[in-house]
Amino acid sequence: MRRFSVCSPSSYRLNPITSMATGSGSLIWFRKGLRIHDNPALEYASKGSEFLYPVFVIDPHYMESDPSAFSPGSSRAGVNRIRFLLESLKDLDSSLKKLGSRLLVLKGEPGEVMIRCLQEWKVKKLCFEYDTDPYYQALDVKVKDYASSSGVEVFSPVSHTLFNPSDIIAKNGGKPPLSYQSFLKIAGEPTCAKSELVMSYSSLPPVGDYGSLGILEVPTLEELGYRDDEQAEWTPFRGGESEALKRLNKSISDKAWVANFEKPKGDPSAFLKPATTVLSPYLKFGCLSSRYFYQCLQSIYKDVKKHTSPPVSLLGQLLWREFFYTTAFGTPNFDKMKGNQICKQIPWKEDHEMLSAWRDSKTGYPWIDAIMVQLRKWGWMHHLARHCVACFLTRGDLFIHWEQGRDVFERLLIDSDWAINNGNWMWLSCSSFFYQYNRIYSPISFGKKYDPDGKYIKHFLPVLKDMPKQYIYEPWTAPLSVQTKAKCIVGKDYPKPMILHDSASKECKRKMGETYALNKKMSGKVGDEDLRDLRRKLQQDDEQVEPKIRKQRPRLN
Ligand code: FAD
Hints:
One of its GO terms (biological process) is nucleobase-containing compound metabolic process. InterPro entries: Crypto/Photolyase_FAD-like_sf, Crypto/Photolyase_N_sf, Cryptochr/Photolyase_FAD-bd, Cryptochrome/DNA_photolyase_1, DNA_photolyase_N, Rossmann-like_a/b/a_fold. The protein is mainly α. Helix content is 45%, strand content 6%. Helix 5 (134-149) links the parallel strand 5 and strand 6.
């Protein structure tokens, strides 16, 4: 084993700490944590084991094609993310093979498959990374219960995050801290800051006899039922630990860039060379250890004279991830407005047509539409680009429920992460964490500040590629002769704006004001009926205001 830092592996936070079984078979169940480096579950499974069964279970609900979904992919995930996952599995399999092992791929409902594996292989240890997502919390109870009742030792360390969210919640009196600053104060330095990380192995125990369980190689997309021409453009980001480490090394090779990293500064329209690391999909699948990333940043900070600090520094970004993991883990119904104590109750509008226009890049605002094309084609956008489209959908312009935007992101992002996605959608919709609903992103001037020529728009919306730059953010203002010359007639080749930003955002502010007042009056305990009444009132107000807005609407060519 090649170790990276200075302490012994016993300094890992184990969950639970268990004694070592020797001279027998072990099973390592990969779910996230798709890596060899800094993988304590793998380390523990391989130690003293005669045989090692490295398993990944393909859940057909997550992986197999569902033609009824709104974009190519399964019922749960867009095809970009499925491809990213398959690439990550291929890479993991190839690394395991170099160490004398391989990945055993099985198909089926993961809980049932795991129980069958335990029955068939008679292993002594079952090891898998602890996972705080509700899906795994439920699944893991079932598998752990079966394993324990069969005398199989279970080892499930916390290694997806820097901290164990339970520890922070316990330190905070049983509740998750609800602000980043209070999180930092309570969290302090993670123990992994000084842990020695196992980065590689000279070999792993051989795979035992796997009998008749229907073991597969990592499938291709086609084998899962996808066509080669499923997408017009694929994400440029390749999955896997090898890519993750390459990408990390490239990002941190420029120490000055790391030292001066300052978010939210940075250009959201930069797409040839993104302004941030694009390590999120690798962290999501655990192709990259957040603890290794953290140690790399620490060592750079030691080498430079001056560096930025949380919340804006690169290390501060990793801590945002921890913050959302902790609040998500400690908040019942974190992914819903209803029954979620930290979420303001807001009478969002139901409007399927508006939602589809936003989702399908047809709002008529090129900055918003281009970002949504990047989401569909690449599965990744800059943080501020995510801000703009999330604000536009919810409290900024359309007043549509954040849960519906969250669902679209959850499907299409390659870095889609349960805790971070829900947390940020609540943030952007002013439902939790952030409450300055008067601060709204303009779908026109915000992007223009960074990219006055509209290069980003022209790349992701080629229909506007010949539109002169003075009209690129508001093509409906271009004279018809200009639109004709640019081969883009607004209303025919590209949509008219679906709403007028100035009046729509004013309306949204008014609605948010009334909603906040109601939440305050009811001390946050807004019931279904209160919400229905307020929705009705806001609708009546809308009906009175609408004719005035229509009058103000510019005449479109
Ligand atoms: P960098 O700036 O290089 O940051 C390094 C790492 O820090 C990221 O890879 C990520 O793991 C973490 N990080 C950065 N910003 C945040 C943040 N605000 N909150 C939590 N962690 C952060 N990020 C996801 O990983 N998955 C999601 O599903 C997701 N959904 C989002 C939804 C909305 C509406 C918004 C506004 C943001 C969302 N983010 C999500 C957060 C953020 O936009 C991405 O993490 C970031 O843009 C990823 O790019 P990067 O790796 O280059 O980030």
